[in-house]
Each structure stands twice: as C-alpha cells, then as structure tokens.
UniProtKB/TrEMBL annotation:
This is TRAP transporter substrate-binding protein. Keywords: Signal. PANTHER family: BLL6794 PROTEIN, PTHR33376. It comes from Microbaculum marinum. GO terms for biological process: transmembrane transport. The keyword Nucleotide-binding does not apply. Residues 1-23 form the signal peptide.
Length: 342
C-alpha cells in the first residue's frame, strides 16, 4: 500500500470513529435555583442524567452555568428558545395557566409522592387539550408538599387570632388562602423571607416545611399552623422548546418521555417528601417552633372560609371547557389509587 493511500484510509477511519460524537444533540437546560436546592440537585440534575442514559448519549444535556433571568421568566425562555429546557412554578405566571390551579387546592394530600403522579395523570387526561403550555413540549408536572402557615410571635390557634396578620404569600391558590383567612398579603421575593420576618415587616409566611429550613426562617419563626393535607401546594412544570423537541428523532423523543411524565412526577414527589420530613425533624429537634394542628371546630371554619375560593377555581376551569368538578373528583380518586399502589 502506498503511503498516501494509507494516510487517507487512516484519516477516514478517524473521521468515522468521531462521527457519533459530532451527531450529538446539545440541549441547554436553564436553572434559577441554588445548586444545593432539592428541586435542582435531586430532581432536575438526575433527570438530565437519565435523559443522557436513555438516549445512549445521543442527547447531551448541558445545564447553563448562570441564571438567564428571574424565575417567572423561565416559561417564556423555553417558548422563545432562549433555553431549550426550563422548569418553574405555574403560579409565577399569573393569568397564563388556569387548569393548573386544580393541583394547588387545599387539603388534597399529605404527601407529594401521592399527589404528584396523580396530578400528572389527571392533567394529561383532562387538560392536555387546553394547550396551556403552548410553544413547548410538556415533559413533567408535579407539586411540592403541603403548604402551611408559619408565624413569628403571632397566635395561629384560631381564625380570629390570625386575622389581619401580615403574611408573605405565594401565588396561585396560596393567594386565595390569604384572602379566605383575611390575612394581609406581603409581596416579597422568597429570597427576602428571612429579612422581612426577622425585621418585623411580616408576621409570617406561607411555606412547605422544606422551605422553612432551606431559607433558614426556622431561626425566627415561633408557630406553625399544620393543616392536614395542606392549605395549598404549588404546581410545577418541566418543558422543552417545541421546535427543539420536533428536531429530535422519534427514538430520542420516546427515550426522553420514558424518564419524564409520571416517572419524573414520582421522583419529584419522593424528593419533596424526604425534604419535608427532614425539615420537620430539624424543627422538632430545635424546639423553637410550636406546631399547631387545628381542632375539629377550626378545621370546619377553615374549610368553610376556603369553600367559595375552591368553587371559583372549579368554575374558572369549567369556563375553559373542562368540567371543573369532574376533574377535581377524578384527582381525588386518582390520589387514592396512587396511595393504594396503583
């Protein structure tokens, strides 16, 4: 073999061996959370690793090093292709999502591990055709654990006692809860929670247990109203830019779906519950926060106060063309199925 032909064959072999690497599809994943936060570290990061494994390396998930902007902007980042994949909280985009408020309602479930898979199933069954996530491919929906009311030097043993309390609130159904309980809402970024509580700007905050310790407000809180099933939850999403999704092969789309959807909801539920359990253990060990469970009379009063707001959520969903009461009843039934191991 002459030398030039041998060199040519070697060059071709090298090029062919490099072909799989060059055929990789890079998917840019945005993040707005601290790297140690459970939502990012234990849900999003493992999911990206599962995608790479499921696609046998054909899809390269690249998590961006710095936040692209504030959390509420992340759904639009996916729609507009600023990032390929984003995650966030539905109620960060008021007015955009109506149906997702169903998964945020009070008293639904004591564990995200039950609610999250049930919520994914019901969303796909009842609400997928509403196309509220248009411009993206919806890859996952789940919720955090039960949201509760926490205060600093403010009694939570009765509705009369907490009436008028200045509370830092979230969006979605959490806002409805604040109106129903006649609280005075304080709008502030969650990152300012410690500052506004320690400085007396707010009397309390709405949080799942995990966030109480994650944002270190357990150091300044004195009471927690722990309502069975929670006063609210927050519905969350994971989406991919639609054009990016359409550019993937059918094989890779199927591989990604195999680790998304209900599988992702189950992972998220497990992570949130473990984080909540650890938070409660820390809170109880420290002994600084008195945990109050409403008695029967107070539960009756709380439910009565929230009922008109729950009815409005269902009416708003019905106005979108889906029977709200039917969807709610189906969600409750689906939660029971998940609890039973179905």
């Amino acid at each position: 073999m002459n030398r030039s032909l041998g060199a040519t064959l070697i060059a071709v072999a090298v090029a062919l061996s490099a072909a799989p690497a060059s055929a990789q599809t890079v998917v840019r994943v945005a993040n707005w959370l601290p790297p140690q936060h459970p939502l990012f570290a234990q849900i999003i990061v493992p999911w990206t690793e599962q995608v790479e494994a499921a696609t046998e390396g054909r899809v390269d998930m690249q998590i961006l090093d710095a936040p692209l902007g504030p959390p509420p902007a992340h759904f639009d980042f996916a729609v507009n292709g600023v990032a390929d994949v984003t995650f966030g909280v539905h109620n960060y985009s008021p007015g955009r999502f109506t149906a997702t408020k169903l998964g945020e309602m009070a008293f639904l479930c004591e564990k995200s591990a039950y609610l999250s898979p049930a919520w994914w199933r019901i969303h796909q069954q009842y609400f997928a055709d509403l196309n509220e996530h248009r411009g993206t491919k919806l890859l996952g929906i789940w919720t955090h654990g039960p949201g509760q009311l926490w205060t600093r030097n403010r009694d939570v043993t009765s509705l009369d006692a907490i009436k008028g309390a200045k509370i830092r609130i979230g969006g979605g159904f959490a806002q409805d809860v604040s109106q129903a309980l006649e609280l005075t809402p304080i709008q502030a970024p969650v990152t300012k929670a410690y500052e506004i509580l320690s400085g007396g700007v707010a009397d309390g905050i709405q949080f799942p247990a995990e966030s109480v310790t994650a944002f270190k407000v357990d150091e300044v809180l004195t009471q927690g109203l722990i309502v069975p099933g929670g006063l609210y939850t927050a519905s969350m999403f994971l989406v991919m830019n639609q054009a990016k999704w359409d550019s993937l092969s059918a094989e890779d789309q199927a591989a990604i779906e195999s680790v998304s959807g209900e599988a992702l909801a189950k992972l998220a539920g497990k992570v949130w519950d473990e984080a909540d359990d650890k938070a409660f253990e820390k809170i109880e060990a420290a002994g600084k926060i008195t945990l109050v469970t409403p008695d029967d009379a107070e539960m009756t009063a709380i439910k009565a106060a929230l009922k008109p707001y729950e009815e409005k959520v269902l009416a708003d969903i019905t106005a979108k063309g889906v029977n709200g009461q039917e969807a709610y009843d189906a969600l409750v039934a689906e939660i029971a199925k998940v609890k039973a191991g179905d």
